[in-house]
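Appendix C: a fully annotated inverse folding record. The material below is reproduced so that readers can follow the format used throughout the book. The structure is listed first as tokens, followed by the designed sequence.
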């Protein structure tokens, strides 16, 4: 009788452990991701060979955080584009594998799907093509697409996801399209500024922000001449008088034209309070330093935009302008669970 009881107890114990194991192995359910266009934004345009689906988005997100894209498995796209920093990295110049130092400051990926061209000199026409750049750069991933495809093709998981998303085996087409699909979903447009001035909610807003907004959009500062529209950029190429002479050729690096020397794509100001340090080389560490630069009128570079001139702002006006720039921070964007690893 005792042996029978022991047998029943053992069966019960094994069954209980099996049930608990199954419960633990269940991943928490999450609703499929859905792109939501903020008020005042145009619709997101997807290319005909890469329209949005949740399967493509999920694969792209997995690849965005995949360190196997780098030669030594040490970094991923997310290493230089961290959600808490509005998908920047907080460094003057980004670091690649083995801490190799890049030549430029990492731009934010917020609303990157709306950009008409990519890199600081605008030399890459599509988001899919831009993904190829860090892969082959010696100071970034220091790898090659054929090697990455060979590496990740060995993964049964990636092969299954590739078939679900694009009905083909994992290859360069799948990799570039999937990451681009995910990056186009990184839409930010729900800041204090948006809630108060665009959505017309009753969210509290300070007088400094209101006065700073008026100053930003005034003819006195001319800030909105370049930083305008829903994304606070006109995507033009400008020189802002940061230096008398530039080590970085800017747009000239792509065109070879002398008239393009030291011209850089105007960045979006959305979430700008989170994306320090600033400028193409990260040389200005704080928003206050940026405001002081424009207040001074900048250096007399021959290609400097003539709208940039000495402003003679008061201390209070600088505070107001900074408050407005800080109001462009979208807390929901940087805390969106769907974008986290």
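Designed amino acids, in order:
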């Amino acid at each position: 009788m005792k042996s029978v009881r022991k047998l029943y107890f053992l069966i019960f114990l094994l069954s209980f452990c099996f049930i608990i194991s199954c419960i633990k192995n269940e991943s928490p359910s999450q609703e499929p991701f859905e792109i939501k266009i903020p008020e005042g934004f145009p619709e997101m345009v997807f290319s005909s060979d890469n329209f949005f689906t949740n399967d493509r988005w999920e694969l792209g997100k997995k690849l965005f955080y995949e360190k196997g894209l780098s030669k030594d498995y040490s970094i991923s796209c997310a290493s230089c584009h961290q959600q808490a920093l509005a998908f920047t990295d907080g460094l003057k110049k980004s670091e690649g594998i083995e801490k190799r130092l890049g030549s430029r400051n990492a731009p934010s990926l917020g609303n990157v799907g709306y950009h008409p061209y990519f890199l600081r000199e605008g030399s890459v026409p599509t988001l899919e093509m831009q993904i190829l750049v860090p892969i082959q750069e010696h100071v970034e991933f220091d790898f090659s697409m054929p090697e990455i495809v060979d590496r990740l093709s060995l993964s049964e998981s990636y092969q299954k996801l590739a078939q679900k998303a694009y009905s083909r085996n994992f290859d360069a087409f799948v990799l570039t399209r999937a990451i681009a699909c995910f990056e186009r979903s990184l839409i930010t447009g729900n800041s204090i500024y948006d809630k108060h001035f665009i959505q017309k909610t009753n969210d509290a807003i300070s007088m400094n922000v209101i006065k700073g907004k008026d100053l930003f959009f005034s003819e006195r500062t001319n800030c909105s001449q370049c930083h305008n529209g829903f994304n606070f950029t006109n995507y033009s190429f400008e020189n802002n008088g940061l230096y008398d002479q530039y080590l970085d050729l800017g747009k000239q690096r792509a065109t070879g034209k002398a008239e393009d020397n030291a011209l850089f794509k105007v960045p979006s100001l959305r979430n700008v309070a989170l994306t320090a340090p600033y400028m193409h080389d990260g040389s200005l560490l704080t928003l206050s330093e940026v405001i002081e630069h424009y207040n001074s009128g900048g250096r007399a570079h021959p290609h400097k935009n003539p709208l940039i001139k000495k402003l003679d702002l008061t201390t209070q006006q600088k505070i107001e302008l900074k408050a407005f720039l800080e109001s462009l921070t979208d807390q929901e964007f940087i805390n969106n669970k769907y974008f986290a690893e």
